[in-house]
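re: ur question from earlier - yeah i can do the single chain one, its not a big deal. heres the input i used so u can compare w yours
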Amino acid sequence: MTAGLIAALDTTEPATAQNWARAVTPHCGMVKLGLEYFLANGAPGMKLFHGTPVFLDLKLHDIPNTVAGAVRAVLPLQPAMLTLHAAGGAAMIAAARAAADPEGEARPILLAVTVLTSLDGEALHETGIAGGARQQVLRLARLALSAGADGLVCSAHEVSMLRDAFGAAPVLVVPGIRPVGSDAGGQARVMTPREAADAGADWLVVGRPITQAIDPGRAAQMIAASLVA
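and the output i got, formated as tokens:
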């Protein structure tokens, strides 16, 4: 199966995000709107993308009741995928799933963020987590999937490990994707689109290499073409 491409529209400007979306959607299966955009524009800004599959990357992380309420609050916006932090614990993830389930097949795919791609082993150690990124990713992945998450957000470097552990069922969404020659852009654990797809990723999230290109549509087209086996 060929991995799908998600263009990360990281901006606070609705017009800019819409222009990028128009350019890239012929080549991307989804666009990502994150905290930067959502906090600036809220639900009205999200509604501008009605008809376009949106990965709403809010990384919810709070007590179970609050996260459940947040999930219910965004359900009318019909995001295709929604993120929450696996580190919030099993009860939080289960509460999010219970809040989303009444929507049936229309509910968003719930993705648990394992370890941010900006963190390496040293950074994790500074926060009191021993054993390195791979061990922490596996630990949080097992917790999240058992609590009702549909999939995971992880580094491409952990995709093969997660496929070995959990098989084909979890949806694996991979940020930290950089085409050959691109700057890492603050990410510590990166991989090229083709490498990540070959490892078993379902979706690849690419931001600046697309949106900061002279021709974002052409940049997205080239990345999508590189994913075709």
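The beta strands are 4-8, 30-34, 54-60, 81-85, 109-113, 151-153, 171-174, 203-206. not sure if urs matches, ping me
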